[in-house]
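User: My instructor asked us to take a sequence, write out its structure as tokens, and then describe one feature of it. I'm not sure where to start. Here is the sequence I was given:
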Amino acid sequence: MKLDNSQDLLALSRTEPNARKRLRLLAISHFLDGKNRTQIALNLKVSRRSVNNWVSRYLADGVEGLESKKAQGRPCPLSIKQREQLFDYIDKQSRSSQGGRLTGETIRLYIAEQFQITYHPNAIYKLLHLLGFSWITSRSKHPKQSQAAQDAFKKTAN
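Assistant: Let's start with the prediction itself. The structure tokens for your sequence are:
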């Protein structure tokens, strides 16, 4: 959508909750009022290059061109299939009644052994978050644990 009236853009900028997009809308509003890009940059206290980019994106794509782009970042070294396998392993181990506790180091070693990919210990917890797990893990049940003994203990008076 392309708005050719600076007043429409100014009104749109007043209702915009995102501060960065609001600044872009203001710049385009000034541009449509006939101000040059250097003046706009000085008034808004941004670089002239940013104003040039915003104006170019507006002229090419309209108001949609002023949307913030998602930051790319480094892609996950594990493929989707590997992540599914890791998810199944973690889920199975956390529900296991064999005892023990699943730690970040255990998961890191599993990934290195199964997929030949090394992770930094801090990155394991980010990966767990990506998979939908919390870094705070529960302990698995001890193999000698007795539910009847626990219920009997709860019934005793303090």
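For the description part of your assignment, you could build on this observation: The chain has a mean pLDDT of 86. Try explaining in your own words what that tells you about the chain.
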